[in-house]
Specification:
Elements: E1 10-14, E2 23-27, E3 37-46, E4 61-64, E5 72-80, E6 89-93, E7 99-109, E8 113-118, E9 122-125, E10 132-134, E11 147-156, E12 169-177, E13 182-193, E14 202-204, E15 210-221, E16 226-228, E17 238-244, E18 251-258, E19 263-266, E20 268-272, E21 276-281, H1 285-291, E22 300-305
Antiparallel strand pairs: 1-7, 2-6, 3-5, 3-7, 4-5, 8-15, 9-15, 10-14, 11-13, 11-15, 12-13, 16-17, 17-21, 18-19, 18-22, 20-21
Length: 306
């Protein structure tokens, strides 16, 4: 199976009291490019007995936003990057209330076109210290496809370290207000699978306030390889090609085909690591006659093989 690149998340925690501010700065992974999928899971615990609400930066969408009840919420957010994400920090803001604690995971997923679906979250309040919560089953609408399954779980007023089931790459972070032990804890993980559904099992947080789990399925459709040039292709002139959406480096030669089906191959020198650059020189009229190759007319399609 060929999956896109999925990097480990940056983890942002708010480890101390921040009762005078409503802003929560979250770090995004480095190297974000247009078309990347950014996925954020954040949990925040407030000092006010009311639902805190969330104000989003431009371009971000809510996939799920379950509340724990009186003082805590979790938000699962995503954005398709547009190339303007040069600032590595973006601010999420509570609309009315300040925070005791908050923490977040931000994933960057690259390499294709994305479909994203989530299961209905499971949220529960606990009056004991057991703090067990099951995971929802994620059953995406696509029947069978290479899928990235994400699982997220969070708990407030808990600092316990727990583990994901085998098969998940996982990470955990805690933002804790040390004086009152009002923690906001997030655990996240993902795995690659062709199964038609996924369930991450049971989490035992050991907290008496509230826990939440949810699951996400992401289908990645690879982009077709594309070769372009801004040069005018004339006999005997040098050209530069740009090759994008290649899983591995293309190889020489380049093939040029016109609308009538005539084609020629031209040796090229390839460099780069994606997108790739290929440089070559179109044959002169004399070289074409000597080699017995066709002349090209009209629109031309360019191809590079791997």
């Amino acid at each position: 199976m060929a999956y896109p690149s999925t990097i480990a998340p940056t983890i942002t925690s708010l480890p101390v009291a921040n009762e005078g501010t409503q802003n929560f700065p979250i770090m995004q992974p480095s190297g974000v490019s247009a078309g990347d999928l950014l996925l954020v899971m954040t949990t925040y615990y407030t000092n006010v007995m009311a639902s805190p609400g969330l104000s989003l930066p431009t371009g971000w969408l809510v996939l799920n936003n379950p509340g724990f009840g009186s003082q805590g919420e979790t938000a699962l957010l995503y954005k398709i990057a547009d190339g303007s994400e040069s600032d590595q920090t973006f601010l999420f803001s509570l609309t009315s209330f300040s925070m005791f604690a908050a923490t977040a995971h931000c994933y960057k997923i690259s390499g294709g076109v994305f479909d994203i679906e989530s299961a209905t979250p499971i949220v529960q309040q606990n009056s004991s210290s057991i703090g067990m919560v099951n995971s929802p089953t994620v059953t995406p609408s696509w029947v069978s496809s290479d899928t990235l399954y994400f699982t997220f779980s969070s708990s407030v007023r808990s600092t316990k370290t727990i583990a994901l089931p085998s098969g998940y790459a996982s990470v955990q972070s805690t933002g804790e207000r040390s004086t009152t032990n009002y923690g906001a804890n997030v655990l996240s993980g993902y795995k690659e699978s062709t199964e038609t559904s996924d369930n991450a099992g049971t989490y035992t947080w050991g907290s008496y306030q509230g826990q939440m789990t949810l699951g996400v399925a992401i289908r990645i459709t690879s982009l077709d390889p594309l070769v372009t040039t801004t040069d005018t292709l004339r006999p005997g002139t040098e050209f530069t090609l740009t090759a994008t959406n290649y899983a591995s480096a293309p190889v020489s030669p380049a093939t040029f085909t016109d609308s009538a089906g005539n084609s020629i191959t031209v040796p090229v020198t390839i460099s780069g690591s994606g997108p790739y650059t290929a440089v070559g020189t179109m044959p002169t009229l004399a070289e074409a006659v000597t080699a017995g190759t066709s002349l090209l007319f009209g629109d031309v399609t360019i191809g590079l093989s791997t």
